[in-house]
Amino acid sequence: MAVADDGSRSVALGMSGGVDSAVSAALLMRAGYDVVGVTCRFTDDGAADRAAADAAAVCARLGVRHIERDCSGLFEREVVEPFARSYACGLTPSPCVGCNARCKLPALLDAADELGCRAVATGHYARIAQLAESGRYVVKAALDARKDQSYMLALLAQDQLARLVLPLGGTTKAEVRVMASDLGLPVAEKPESQDVCFVDGDYRAFLRERGVRDEPGAIVDRNGTVLGRHEGLANFTVGQRKGIGVAAPQPYYVLGKRPEAAELVVGFADEALIGGVLAGPMNWQAIERLDEPRAASVKLRYRSRAVPCIIEPEPEGRVRAVLREPQPTTAPGQFAVFSVGDTVLGGGMIEEVASV
Predict the structure, then answer these.
(1) Does residue 290 sit within a domain?
(2) Is 197 an annotated catalytic residue?
(3) Domain residues for 231?
(4) Among residues 59, 99, 117, 309, which one is catalytic?
(5) Which of 51, 112, 242, 281 is an S-S bond match for 17, by CB 3.0 to 4.6 Å?
(6) How far is Cα 99 from Cα 273, in angstroms, rounded to an integer?
């Protein structure tokens, strides 16, 4: 991790109150940066209060400045409202991917500009590199594959990547815990945060509060044969096997949703495989655009493994990924993130899935 090459030694570090951003502060200081801890408050609740207090305590321990910023309006507009709208349309959104590009990084960059910091940093487990042949900035996978979060940063633009420093890209979570303990940081044993930070408990109750109604409808197979009834499409996720409520000699899987008819489409295991996806519009990192088919790997969910595919350009900045082998189905609203080796090519939201 090198100090910014324009001579600036100041960095605005996004601090969530967790152990990852705390250790990031220490590593940045060790690398010669002047660190300002920035806690962007995206919600106005007790959890946000505790996170800000933890971040302030870490900064006090390390002797660095700490500020807070109210970013709740931006978060509501760019993350929470699209999350609810997506579910209302029958999608299964992945809010963290869009949040990093449209909310967290913009908020942190605004804070950096006000503070006079050229660089920004976060506690993500990934690496930033600049390609020698093109000069483009890319996200690369973390050295610790188990903690790799490059998928979550696939929508970041070139101007964002050019200012981003990721101190944890070459460390493991275990090493981070040890460093936090050795430094006497008050968050050394703090548990991991939940995936959807703005939903406390059952997301279905959250959606009802946001006006997403649970319209009952039919459970059908691919041919439209009615197999049963459901109480609301938001209660189901594509790929789900348990809790569907229809008995059969084999387990049913959720294959898709037809929100216009309030139908839940189910099928057996051999039907719950896909041969490709249509995704986009794409955000490219390693390349400027896709002009012809090329081989790559793709992750269809954050927790899934990368699998070989061929990416084919489609109109309006979209791509079609043809999978080398059938894969378990994924849901429109998730993100397809393409890579070559450990380098992210780009990512886009999945709009359609193609059956085998």
Answers:
(1) yes
(2) yes
(3) 214-268
(4) 99
(5) 51
(6) 29
